Input
Amino acid sequence: MSKDSLAGLLPNLEAMPPISEAALSTPSDESSFVLRPFVGPLVISYIVDDGDGDRALRQRDLSTNGLSEAQLHDRAVENLARHVQTVGIRLRPYGSLMAVLFDGDMEATLMLYPTLWTKLCEDMGDELVVAVPARDVLAVSPLDSPQGIAELRAIVKRVWPTDDHALTTQLFELGDGGWSLWKVPPS
Output
């Protein structure tokens, strides 16, 4: 695989079973997938369309292309921004929350696209709660909206685990410190 073949490289959010971050950051061999911890059970993998569909990159692809994991990540996020410019993002109010529509397959991966979150924070408030129960589902509520959070939970319940690309039942919070698992506030 040449560097030119990485032109379509994109990040991809996936759910991982609970394993240590050390296991993620120290690949066992060249055939292991390139995975980067993100938040909670979500990890970032890297995919490229090889003509026969998407292919997940392995550690050997890093050495073959002379890239570090950080360089691969940066390139994938840059390509995501270009993909957004090509496809476009649509924001749709849905009850007390906002549905984020993208390409029908990578909505959850938009958690990695900061321009979207700047806009949503301007429109909805600085603290947001997010549901990504599947790769193709991204819904957002203001942190201070009990109704919006209830609607996020209802979406998770509807989607999980029947979707072909189910991710997680957990909700996530975006605040000043970046992404974290959302914790139910004490009553």
Q: What stands out?
A: Residues 124 and 142 are 6 Å apart (CA to CA). Helices lie at 21-25, 59-65, 69-87, 114-124, 146-159. Strands lie at 10-15, 36-39, 42-49, 54-56, 90-94, 97-101, 128-131, 139-142, 171-175, 178-181. The chain has a mean pLDDT of 90.
